[in-house]
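Researcher: Here's a chain I'd like modeled. Treat it as a single chain, no partners, no ligands.
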Amino acid sequence: MTRSLVVVGHGMAGHRLVEEVRAGDRTGRWRITVVAEEPRPAYDRVALSSYLEGRTAAELALATPGLADDPRTDLRLDTRVTAVDRAARTVTCSDGTVLRYDALVLATGSSPFVPPVPGRELAGCFTYRTIDDLDALRAAARPGEAGVVIGGGLLGLEAARALLLLGMRPHVVELAPHLMPLQLDEGGGRVLARLVGGLGVGVHCGRGVASVDAGHDGRAAGVTLSDGTVLPARAVVFSAGVRPRDELAGPAGLARGKRGGFHVDEHCRTADARVWAVGECAAVLGRCHGLAAPGLRMAEGVARQLLDAPHEAFPGADLSAKLKLLGVDVAGFGDVHARTEGALEFVREDETAGSYAKLVLAADGRTLLGGVLAGDTRGYAMLRSLLGRPLTAAPERLLAGAVAG
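Model: Modeled as a single isolated chain. Structure tokens:
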């Protein structure tokens, strides 16, 4: 008997789930309806900035032609789910359509967090989340003029790169004492700031935003920081984090995590056996994960459950990352901030070469708990492989090898 699967959201996690179910459903057990808010199918949001380098929306698309042609799949774009009735097992859409489900997967993603600063609604203020956001930013950009990015995390530095690609002069404002405070320690953040500063990016850490200021034409013209500094700004891009899209939870009687998101167990199931959540909107055991890779793993696990295939519990997110930001290589893994009791830190910094490397060891001085690399990450794979294990050489030798590759 054919059963109805409704997927709310067609981002990267929602798309992965649909593809996994389609690939594994050999008998045509599931009829899938996907309700997507955006006017286009899923695309690679991780590679969003490449859109400003010349890649087209079609090249970023994740959906294959087979999805649109599959009679078992109904993709409804530019449509929003407004209500979930768990008793009737239906969802109501913004166009008035009511869809019945046997299984419901919430993949609503997240929305950009815009701090409540005066002037945030002025023309010339943008978020950095969708292709439409980038189209709007490109239309407003003026080469040679300044732009301000609010947020110095991973997405904020991607937004700064976008401004550089548009010919603008970006400034990055970060409330924390250094850039990328989640992935890097103070030393790594300092080296990153120095290197991106050499590329023409103004870095302002340890300061908040007091206001976005209007010019004579009524659009954003500058940003005033908490210390009184005024930065000129033709464009202001908010990249200060995201918030899970969980507005359907309350009316549907679904629990939320303490910091938002649909509360699910280690199998991504809500308290309702017919309802799951995956991706950035899922608070697994109360915790949301704002990265693509964990969301894809969640989607794969739920797909296997829907197919009655063996599956493992979601293992949690590995926050280890090796990245290239504005052309600068950075990496962090394990306990980058040495928060483990008794942790020891060994640092090697080469200011001439513009490189920084740190190892975090357990109190025994031998077991590797984490590390940070900035400017040169060629030692990342070797060091990452040692995480949780005794060192194979003295810390000084390992750090010298990491810096020298």
